[in-house]
Amino acid sequence: MKQRRRRKSWGFRRFLLNFSVSALLIAGIFAGLSACARKDVSGHANRNPAFDLSTFFDGNAVAYGIFEDRFGNLRRQFRVNLSGRRDGNQLILDEDFLYDDGERANRTWTIDRQQDFGTDGILYEGRAADVEAVARGTQAGNTLKWQYDVVLDMSGMSLKVHFDDWIYKQDEDIAINRAYVTKYGVDIGSVTIVFIRGKTALSLWPLQLDQWPNQ
């Protein structure tokens, strides 16, 4: 009888132990997912300096960027000349790219300011030739969240990927863009871009895009 009780007691303890380990694993998984989830832009409503998309990109600007794969390995570098102009609630933004492998590219955005939701942000929609359907963004505080699907030419193959851009204005002339690139919901890499405009960009614009600098 005592032996049976011991076996039952040990079996119950083992069940509790397994249950506790499983619960901890599940909690860890959900904690990891929560940490990876990107927050809504409204959480940045009180951050300064305030970022107005049309004002920031009105005129000439330059940008420097890198693309890293999902393991943090540097894959590409690029630089951009930007030229924007406002027309009412619309921003036309021309982007000329040079990549470190010599590739040239161009994109022209037509971005419309749609609606102001107060502290929940200002809604924007944008279109470009290589962007599928409509890009959508929300700006609040110093932050713009910008999402779109784009077709990239990678080693001669067309690949449609999703961009989840987060642009943070740092001061009057500087903004940093952190973009997460996914395919079927799986992370394939990230892009980091520094935008420089206004007086800070006067000595830089336009960047020479004939060839990648050797020095």
Can you walk me through this structure?
This protein has 215 residues and is α+β, with helices and mostly antiparallel strands. The protein folds into 2 domains: 37 residues; 158 residues, Beta Barrel (Lipocalin), CATH 2.40.128. It has 3 helices and 10 strands. The protein has a 10-stranded antiparallel barrel. The radius of gyration is 24 Å and the shape is globular.
Q: What is the total tally of β strands?
A: 10
What best-fitting shape do the alpha-carbon axes yield? globular
Biggest pleated-sheet summary: 10 strands, antiparallel, barrel
Mean pLDDT, rounded to whole units?
83
Q: Please give the alpha-carbon distance between the first and last residues.
A: 84 Å
CATH class of the largest domain reads: Mainly Beta
How much beta, percentage-wise?
A: over 45%
What string, H for helix and E for strand, traces the elements in order? HHEEEEEEEEEEH
Q: Uncertain spans, ≥5 residues at pLDDT below 50? A: 1-36
CATH topology of the largest domain: Lipocalin
